[in-house]
Amino acid sequence: xxxxxxxxxxxxxxxxxxxxxxxxxxxxxxxxxxxxxxxxxxxxxxxxxxxxxxxxxxxx
Length: 60
What we know:
Mean pLDDT: 80
Helix content: 40-55%
Structural class: mainly alpha
Number of strands: 0
Order of helices and strands: HHHH
Distance between the termini: 33 Å
Number of helices: 4
Number of domains: 1
Radius of gyration: 17 Å
Strand content: under 5%
Shape: flat
């Protein structure tokens, strides 16, 4: 990434974040959201599927 002009600190952190994702660090659900909202947590895939229209590109 640095070779194509991305600043080194960002490139390093981005690489670390991708490794965290690959190691399922971000996939662990904690009870906080359920405690606050009263609803079970759901996966990112389910969230994006449920709200796909909200993220769709809208005409300007």
